[in-house]
Amino acid sequence: MIQKWLKWLKVLPAAIFAAMTLAGCENYVVLQPKGPVAKTEYDLIVFSAIVCLGIILVVFALLFYIIWRYRDKPDNKAPYQPEWDDNKTIEIIWWAIPIVICMILGYSTAKTTYALAKGTGFHDSDKQPVTIQATSLDWKWLFTYPDDKVASVNEVVIPAGVPVKFELTTDAPMNSFWVPSLGGQIYTMPGMSMGLYLKADKPGVYYGSGANFSGEGFAHMKFKVIAKPENEYKQWVAQVKKSSPALTEKGYETLSKPGLTDKAFYSSYPNGLFEKIVKKNGGDFYKMHHMDTYKTHPDFGKDSMKDENGGSDMNMDMSH
Amino acid sequence: MWEKIKDFSSGFFVTGEPMIYGADVAIVLVSLAIVYVLTRYKKWGWLWREWLTTVDHKKIGIMYIIAALLMLFRGGVDALLMRTQLALPNQHFLDSNHYNEIFTTHGTIMILFMAMPLMFGLFNIAVPLQIGARDVAYPFLNAVSFWMFFFGALLFNLSFVIGGSPNAGWLSYPPLSEIPYSSGPGQNFYVWGINISGIGSTATGINFLVTILKMRAPGMKLMKMPLFTWSVLASCILIIFTFPVFTATLAMLYIDRFLGGHFFTMTGAGNPMMYINLIWMWGHPEVYIVVLPAFGIFSEVVATFSKKKIFGYKSMVFSLILISVISYFTWAHHFFTMGAGADVNTFFAIATMAIAIPTGVKIFNWLFTMYKGRIEFSQPMLWTIGFIVCFVIGGATGVMLSIAPADYQYHNSYFLIAHFHNTLIGGVVFAYLAGLIYWWPKMFGFKLNDRLGKWAFWFWNIGFYVCFLPQYALGFMGMTRRLYTYGWDRGWAPLNFVSTIGAFLMGIGFIFQAVQIIYSIKHGEKDTTGDPWNGRTLEWSIPSPAPHYNFAVVPYAPEQDAWWEMKKKMQDPDYKKEKVELEPIHMPKNTGIPFIMSFFWFIAGFGFTFEWVWMIVVGLIGVAATMFARSFQYDDDYYIPVEEIKETESAMGRVV
Fold first, then answer.
1. Which chain A residues are Cβ-neighbours of B400 within 8 angstroms?
2. pLDDT tens across B327-339, in order?
3. Which residues fall within 8 angstroms of residue A296, CB to CB, at 6 or more apart?
4. Could you tell me the CATH number of the domain that includes residue A222?
5. What ipTM was reported for this prediction?
6. Are B331 and A104 in contact (CB under 8 A)?
7. Domain membership of residue A50 as a residue range
8. In a domain, A51, yes or no
């Protein structure tokens, strides 16, 4: 009976594989990096996956060899030593192997973590980064453009080939800002302004979503990231300024109420809206807690500070 | 008047869902059936004397296991409902709120009301017997622990039909779990259900730590203890250091909710990050709390069914302790993406990877225990092999997740979901099922049916991979957890459909196990020897099921695998059994106080949940009164006379 079922075992991987291919290669967004951050993370994912796969295969081979060779059958001629329980040499070997593997992985982890925190591919870029502020609301994303003074909901347009500094906060329960094709996520948290550098190498439309559960409408917190060539980006800004309505204080109040909305564009938004949201949700208290960090940081007060701390830095970003 | 009652009950009872009404009816019918059977067969007294008031660790263990299996059923049904909803895009089987409640209760129940009690059940069954003790160090406290768990779980499960379930995720991050976003009683159910049973868990940790340190049979040095007992010791140390953190964190959350505190709200100078740090300072060690005993079980099973001494005993002990120490330094890997900065992320990433070192060593030691052994593919051994395959994959993906920059892409995606089910089902559930089958004859005196058990094993295993391997791929496709629905546009549909099939295969596996238990009660092979597996440790030296005083004579156990060594000596033709004089055995008396006290905790918890102050007062007065009563209970022990021991032993076919 069980033998019959074992036959099924062979069919199942094929079925899973079929389902995976059916899903289409282009849908594996994490494995199709479209920017330097995602590429760096992708390289690390592939490297660690290969190392881990190697370990898995070795252990499986050993396991199946042992259970086959030492199975309890009367005619099994393999040696049987019920008291053999100690061999220092081989034990030292398998304490050592995982230690070495962890050192290798640990080294590349540390290197990449610091590199990403500095902002991979940004300081070597000759282009001035664009800042875009993203606020997660119940249950939509608001994007404000402090450089161009426009705003949008559930769709963010960025210039391709230009580094973008996303500043993130929330006016609702915390969420997480994730655009898998461009790079890994950072949380949006109340009263804090978080930073995330991303860049799209080429024009395209990329999938983005909230990645941390935030209540009833969470599943609908998706947004599109549209990367346009720089001149088209400028045209888009001009277009929005000309033809879209303004986002007023009142309009924001309505927008921030729980509910779903479609995408929208605004020709302007209330001055300092993002900063006000941070402050309203306890930004001042947060500053108070972290006063020491401000004072002791060597770059305190310097303009360059923000950029160098880059990526996942939330300590310094309260100053504006 | 009528209007008032209507108003109250429409808020109090969960309404509007046909499935919930069905459950209401089922609950009422089952309760009536239980009352009827107990009355019809005059079993109320039996229930009270033999079970509700017992302080016998073996009976408490059995009650833990029964409760845990019921919770496995409940949590499993939650899982199947979720997978049904996600089988295809844009389904309307569950609405958002219902789905959110279900994933919250699924996680909470599986960890806290399934894994923990199943683990405590096995602690209770095996530890005293393995170390040659007659009970745990604090039998009364042991009963308190069980009943606190029981009523905590009952309170939590009530939320399903009364008041509404929590729906902010199994760890209830603020601000979502704070009043502005979750105003109903759901979150209060969460806090009190967990905290009432959490007090019991802390007490169990203390109880077993003391039991292991103080109550071992003469001659049994720490470094001669069975590895399961070692793993329990390591797990208990973790419990003692982490559960108080958990209890305090949830208490603070409740203060925020009930008294308008600001521990976790930014606007009052609090900080939600503090909650997230604290909850994971418990939460990460918690997974090691449940997985260390799992390692212990596998160590016993592998040695027994390879008919060989465990390989590298000292390494095994050292790696257990090392894992429990490092596990305190990994909590921040649950939020690499919250902007802690490169220094913090690197530290926690490397600490997390470091756990793989002792874990890997354990895997190799199990492999080399089998090497040059004689492997018998009994049910517990099958689960162990299934575990090694599953856990190696889960461990490898765990290492991948620990790499902080890569985690920015895995975080909260289905890759993560697949990973932790890989370790928690493959590691913890497989182990506890192996342990349950392994110690079953010791609990009940008969073996579980092999054929049905193997069916269950294959359904669980195949189902597991069909369910969770596609989820790794879904993670790479950008699918995040806790989505109640999704569209056709991202290409997620085929893999989700496959995953749902896998979940149902596991469900069939569970049905096989239920049938296996029922079938074996009638037709199971009786264990007349007390040693059905040719075991190695002391629990196999006494009859099955164990007499209530466990050991007629406390054994002398100076060697690792004490019972194995004794059996070897007995085979010697010159072996003569030493004549020992029986002595009266000192035992604790049954008491109803743990049950009554925990019941008052339940009353208080219910009051706290609905914020009814009068009920809180009644509950807490009851708790205080029962404690007071206990402190004047002097007549709490007795001696079993030698005659009775002799009778019991000879009835079980043993000559003393």
1. 45, 48-49, 52
2. 999 999 999 999 8
3. none
4. 2.60.40.420
5. 0.91
6. no
7. 31-72+93-120
8. yes
